[in-house]
Structures are given as structure tokens and as C-alpha cells.
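Hey all, quick one. A colleague (J.T.) asked me to put the magnesium ion job into the tracker so the inputs and the C-alpha cells live in one place instead of scattered across chat threads. No bug as far as I know, just bookkeeping. Sequence used:
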Amino acid sequence: MPSESSNEPVKPSNFIRDIILEDNRTGKFGGRVHTRFPPEPNGYLHIGHAKSICLNFGLAAEFGGKCNLRFDDTNPSKEETEYVDSIIEDVRWLGFDWEDRLFYASDYFGQLYEWAVQLIKTGKAYVCDLTAEQVRQHRGTPSEPGKESPYRNRPAEENLDLFQRMRAGEFPDGSRTLRSKIDMGSPNFNMRDPVMYRILHADHHRTGGTWCIYPMYDFTHGESDSIEGITHSICTLEFEDHRPLYDWYVENLGIHHPQQIEFDRLNLTDTVLSKRKLLLLVQKGIVSGWDDPRMPTLSGLRRRGYTPEGIRQFCGTIGVSKTNGMIEYSLLEHCLREDLNRRAARVMAVLDPVKVVIDNYPDELVEEMDAVNNPEDASMGTRKVPFSKVLYIEREDFREDPPKQYYRLSPGREVRLRYAYFVTCTGVVKEETTGEIVEIHCSYDPASKGGNSPDGRKVKSTIHWVSAAHAMDVEARLYENLFRSEDSAEETEDQDFTATLNPNSLEVRSAVKIEPSVKTAAPGSRYQFERVGYFCVDKDSSPEKLVFNRTVSLKDTWAKIEKKGAR
Ligand code: ATP
Ligand code: MG
């Protein structure tokens, strides 16, 4: 494996950094910077989460601060240990370290309960007997204030008694809630006496059957931030309207008050980044699992061959803003190619093989040709590639009737076989009935060994090859985007978002020919198949049959877009 070279994200200025700089200048948090990444363990992390991870851990590192990993696990019905484990693995893989600061919101259930009691005692929370439906009806509309609950003015002692009995399991699910007493007339719905606790007789993945009441997200998040001494609580824009409530809770509890700051959620073309939709793809069997190489999950991207450095570079490049937008998938691929170009070893592989026979090459001779492992990195050295009389080249690298501007092999045309010889096509053999070309015949120039011109004469093209007698047969899985690019799957509803699936998102090539140097490649090893694309050894590989995932082709559409834009 190539060595991991450092490739840190660029750091353009952004508004969050400016806020922190200002806070440090005024001494708001005593110069401390403490952030957190707070996933809910109800699915696998995706590339959107990577943006948040890079931001939170990146800012902490930049300011000599700390970043916690905290599971926001307040919803027992959708959360699982499998998700916790995958999230831990993925954040680590991305290259970030929370040291000993791995936390769970569920660890704070006891403290949250105490704080709820405190708000009841100070007349700021009450037990409400309205059903969920009735609460909705009382909520009002954007233009009309809500209606106060008939239970709003219960005396504190009664609230306390009822809340204790809620906890003791005396009441069925949904029969009562604990609500904060704020303002049913507020223009902000989040402030219209939001629910703090609900009754839910369900086992939690960590606390088991200890609790039958669970705190709502809004009454958990800021309080968890406060307990951990978080200074800057960075979240996505949809929480902007929740900020007054975040502030209300910490202020009315009189506890440490972190600053919530919102940034734009990542949206990517040609895929979906909603955990709900990703889960549907898995459940419906449209993909093979959360780590299917077509998934935009970190485990899918990793299996596909993406590098942590490439993803971090992408996250640094897109930056953060205050308005949601849509990022081209090709930008992610561009960042990845830049990284893979530096680190992936080159090998020769033929995806669609056709046989070439060098008629004037000795029958039994095998020569070991010197090949460069990575022209970008001399320290990666060279290797020997066996050359012999019968080879494979790509079917598309030969045309019997070459169109104009086609410079690859054709009858009478001389080309260079990479690292080997100049060869000239002398004829073809066709299958009698179909007319398909089954063999291409060539002669070679022994004076051009290594692919060097013997007399200064030039050839217009260099093609890759593998020696037939030495080639290994491997499988290659060629991927395209999961969704057709003309439609936006993200905006389509659950039932029919699968209608825009790309039917060609996976093509399996089972008879790919590859040079023998990859024989012992372990799953996860990354290569550039010269002239073809970047590939990575899949976990489905066995010693009998290697399986490669195409990570990304060599064609950089982003670079093209950029060029066009520059003109
Ligand atoms: P859910 O609907 O299940 O809450 P979520 O996408 O918000 O989904 P979380 O596990 O709550 O998932 O997210 C953890 C953190 O990652 C949050 O701070 C969230 O704001 C951030 N995050 C999630 N999706 C994106 C995205 N597409 N771009 C940037 N940040 C994201
Ligand atoms: Mg969330």
C-alpha cells in the first residue's frame, strides 16, 4: 500500500471561524473552544455528516480546543447498537479523535429529569393531559396564536406528582406529556409550550427498561451541550428556529450557555442524503446494504475506494454558509481524484479484452518490463511486468476502420505498448459467422524496447496491455450514480423517489485481465488501472477471485466545468 501522505483541507475564512475569533477576543468563553459532533444512532453516517464532522473537529483542532463525540440517543424506537458501532468506526476512519470524550445523551437522563423537576417547581413546566392530536389542534397557525392547554395552570405540586407517576409507569403511552410553559402566542411555533417529555414504554439500547418517559430532542440537546461545557454548538440551518428554545432552556435552568450556530446542510446531486431514504434503499434491497459502494454513506464510500483525505479535502473546499444549496457530485469526485492520483499505484488491466499476437516475437520468450508505480511519486518505485507473444488489449483500442482523429491501433498503424515495444498491426482474424474480431496480429520493433523510439520516429498513441499467459482473471464492478442526474431524488417523496433510480448503476465485468503484480492485494488496496480509472479491492474478494470496485473513472468532469466557468 502506498504511504498515507498528508493532505489537509484548505482553510478559507468562514463566518463560524469569525464568530469564534470574536468570542476569543472578548473572552466570552475564557478563550475556550469546545465543539461536539452529535449523531443520532438511527442510521449510518453519510457524506453530509462528514461536512459536520470536519467542521466540528476541524475548528476545535484549529483553535487548540476539543471536540466530543456524542450520541443523541433519545428515541429508543429507532436506535440500535449497530449504528453506534458504525458511527464510531466511520468518524475514526475519517481521521478524527475524541480521546476519552465519547458521550451519550442517555447518560444524562437522570440529570435531565432533575432539571425537568426544577422547571416544574419554578412554574415553568406542566403536565398536560391533551392527546398528541389535541396538542396539534391547540397549536394555532402562523397567523393565529395557539390556544392554551386547560392543564396549563395546574399547581406545581400536582405537576410534580403527575410527573413522578409518569416516570413510575402509571400511565399509558401518549396519555400525558410534560410541556414547558412559554408562550402560546409566540410567532415561533417552537416556543408554543413545546413538549419536553413523552411517555414511551420501550427499551432503550443503553438504559434498557429503566425509563418509560423520554426527553424530546430540544430538551436534551442544549442541556447535553451545557453539561459537557460546549462553547460553540454547531448545527444545520433547520435548527435556526429552535435557537430561542435552546436559549430559553439553558437560561431558565441557569446553567452554562453554549452558543448555537447554524450552517448549511450539504446537498449533493445524483444521490440522496436523507437517512430515512437511505434506510428505505437498504430495506427494499435496492442496494446490498449500508456499505453498498453506490451509497453516499461513509462506509459505502470507503468500500468504493474513497480516501479520508479526499473527503476531508472536499469538505474543506465546499466551506460553510447560511443558505442551503446543491453541490455537484463531480466536485467530490474531483477532490478524490486529486488525492488518488498522488497515492494510488498504477497497474495495467484490460476490462474488455481482445487478443493480440505479436507474430515476430519468439514463442517462448518472456521479458520483464520495468514499469513506474506512480509517476507522481518516485518513492513508490518500479515493478516488473511480464511481456510475451500473446497479449490482451482493450477492444476499444482497436478499430478496423478508424474514424478521423482515432490514433489508436488499426491496420498498418504503429502504436506504443506502454513500457514495452512499438507494434504495428498487420491483420485481424474474425469469427466466421458473427464477424467479431477474435485476434489482432502485429509485428514489433525489437529496437523499441521499453517503449522508447529507436530513431526518433513518433507514434500518436500509447495503449495498455497484459500478457495473456500471465494475466489474472478478476471481477470488476463498474458503478454509476444511484440516481439519474436529470431528476432530483432528494425532493421526491418517499413512495416514488425510487422511480428516479439509475438502472445502470452497477455493471459487473467478470472476465477482466490484470497484470500479476496485484495477486496478493488485500481488500481496501487502491490502484489506478492505467487509462481506465481508479479501482479498489472489494471485501468480497477471495484468493481464487479478486473483486475490484471502480472508485471513479479518470475523466474529470469537474475540471471541465471549472474551465468553462473560467472562460
Ligand atoms: P435525522 O433526521 O435522523 O435527525 P440528521 O441528518 O439530522 O437526521 P443526525 O444524526 O441528527 O442526522 O446528524 C448529526 C449531525 O450531522 C447534526 O449536527 C446534523 O446537523 C449534521 N448533518 C446531518 N446531515 C447533514 C448534511 N447533509 N450536511 C451537513 N450536516 C449534516
Ligand atoms: Mg438530527
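Adding what we noticed when we looked at it: The radius of gyration is 31 Å. The chain has 13 helices and 25 strands.
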